[in-house]
Design a protein that fits this description.
The protein is of the alpha/beta class and 292 residues long. It contains ten helices and seven strands. It has a seven-stranded mixed beta sheet with strand order 3-2-1-4-5-7-6. The radius of gyration is 20 Å and the shape is globular. The N and C termini lie far apart (56 Å). 33% of the residues are buried. Bound molecules: S-adenosyl-L-homocysteine.
């Protein structure tokens, strides 16, 4: 698909109807998403027929773009059930429906629990420490050839940006593509290479991101932020260590099944809430009509 065509397809998608500030929900613009996907696909061959994870999928612009560019299996992960529901509605706009698997997961919490090696020496209860280290070894991360993410920049939940990168690198077989503010370039390189052991970390595109004033804490209607598109290669030894064998595959499948059960429940309760509201409103309307 040509970039112009992809961009106009992505233009038709709905974005967060009630963006949540604490989760730093900013939709990637179609222009930005197209740029990332084009570089990943054309320059590095990281999309077509590759498995892809969109980390912090939101309403799905990157996952859907990847699918439209010919990706194989695509998995979208987010902590917000409402966003996942809106993403599902975007997928359903296609005929046939676009196949993107969705899963509810708190990436920051997972990294905190299973990968926080620096916390190991903190003065917690010894038994607890032991329990955590057992779990840490056992946790099986979902994996894909390519991980795409427009992560929280870590302004609301400190460290969320680094946690996202850490998780993305655990999940990626070949490459992670991530947006970060240009002003944090040196820091991101240090984190990726020194802290997280990346084989390489390169800025592959520079863009301007027009952030809409959706939360009312900026003085202007739109602020321009300069962002870099990064391509980060996780270290190959780590990829090998974390991957393979049947047992792990099985555990991964089980994880997904548990998450799927969980998400259905959450979506159901979100739907019930909506239905209740709708009933209330229609009752109100009919009451009003009676008065007339
Ligand atoms: N990928 C979408 C959304 C980007 S905004 C797009 O490009 O338009 C960041 C997304 O990360 C939001 O959807 C938010 O809900 C999600 N997010 C924030 N914290 C998270 C966490 N701890 N675990 C998983 N997802 C999280």
């Amino acid at each position: 698909m040509k970039p112009k065509q992809l961009q106009s397809e992505l233009q038709d998608l709905r974005t967060f109807s009630n963006p949540k500030q604490n989760l730093e929900q900013y939709a990637t613009t179609p222009l930005l998403a197209t740029k990332l996907l084009q570089v990943a696909s054309v320059e590095f061959n990281d999309i077509e027929e590759k498995s892809v994870i969109d980390l912090g999928v939101g309403t799905g612009v990157l996952a859907i773009g990847a699918k439209l560019m010919g990706a194989g299996h695509v998995l979208g992960i987010d902590v917000d059930a409402d966003a996942l529901e809106e993403c599902k509605e975007n997928l359903e706009m296609y005929e046939p429906e676009l196949e993107v698997e969705l899963c509810l997961m708190d990436v920051v919490e997972l990294i905190r629990r299973y990968d926080n090696e620096e916390d190991e020496d903190e003065d917690e209860d010894e038994d607890e420490d032991e329990a955590v280290s057992v779990k840490r070894k056992d946790y099986v991360w979902p994996r894909a050839d390519t991980v795409l993410t427009n992560p929280p920049f870590g302004t609301r939940r400190k460290g969320a940006d680094v946690a996202f990168l850490a998780a993305a690198m655990k999940m990626a077989e070949t490459a992670v593509y991530s947006f970060h503010k240009t002003s944090t370039r040196e820091y991101i390189e240090k984190v990726a290479v020194k802290k997280l052991g990346a084989k390489s970390a390169k800025v592959v595109a520079e863009m301007k991101y027009g952030l809409k004033n959706q939360y009312g804490h900026h003085r202007k209607d739109e602020v321009e932020v300069f962002v870099d598109v990064w391509r980060i290669e996780p270290s190959s030894s780590k990829a090998k260590k974390d991957a393979d064998d049947d047992e792990k595959d099985e555990m991964f499948e089980q994880n997904l099944r548990d998450l799927a059960a969980n998400i259905e429940e959450l979506q159901l309760s979100a739907r019930q809430r909506k239905d209740k509201e709708r009933n209330k409103n229609s009752r109100k309307n009919s009451d009003n009509r009676k008065k007339w």
